[in-house]
Amino acid sequence: MHLDVRDTLLIVQDQAGVVTARSLRDGSRIWSRPVGAWGSPEFLLAGGRLYAAAREDSVVALDPRDGRTVWRTRVGGR
For residue 45, which of 77, 28, 70, 26 has the smallest C-alpha distance? Predict the structure, then answer.
């Protein structure tokens, strides 16, 4: 499936730490992935990846087309 993510998806996260991509056309769920609780969910879409930072000092990169985790790393903390 070809998706132009910039034009077709709304990325949201619930309080349980589940990131969901929804279609802007009809609101249907495209994919959903549990990624962990976040302090203040902020996303960056760059270079074909969706990046997000977690409350527990980690960063995750997702493939915005299917929600697959590309990588996850700790960036500080404990």
Answer: 70
